[in-house]
Amino acid sequence: MGSMTVSSKFQIVIPKEDRRDLEIKVGDKLVTLKKGNILYVIKVGALKDARGSLKGLDIKDLREKHERFD
Predict the structure, then answer these.
(1) 68: which DSSP letter?
(2) What are the SpoVT-AbrB domain coordinates in residue numbering (predicted)?
(3) Nearest CA to 12 among 30, 34, 33?
(4) What is the pLDDT along the chain (70 residues), one digit of tens a residue?
């Protein structure tokens, strides 16, 4: 986990080791999710990459609606 500084234009640079670990390339899409004072930055992958990721999911393990992101 690296640290970032916000520029005068409110831009941030993702630390090199994080870009490498997440295989972030120029042109990749990222989304942000905010919960309280935490900002999550998530790489958007192709739909085909998600295929099978929910296999065997037990719905009982899902969090209650109030615990999910807005």
Answers:
(1) S
(2) 4-49
(3) 30
(4) 688 999 999 999 999 999 999 899 999 999 888 988 998 888 887 666 767 767 776 766 655 554 555 5
- Domain-located, residue 48: yes
31: domain range? Answer: 16-67
Q: How far is it, in rounded angstroms, from Cα 28 to Cα 42? A: 11
Please name which of 3, 35, 29, 30 lies closest in space to residue 16, comparing C-alpha atoms.
Answer: 3
Strands 30-35 and 38-43: antiparallel
Please tell me the predicted confidence (pLDDT) of residue 19: 92
CA–CA gap between residue 15 and residue 2 (Å, rounded): 6
Distance of CA 6 to the CA centre of its chain: 18
Q: Residue 19 burial by CB count (10 A; 0-12/13-18/19+): exposed, middle or buried?
A: middle
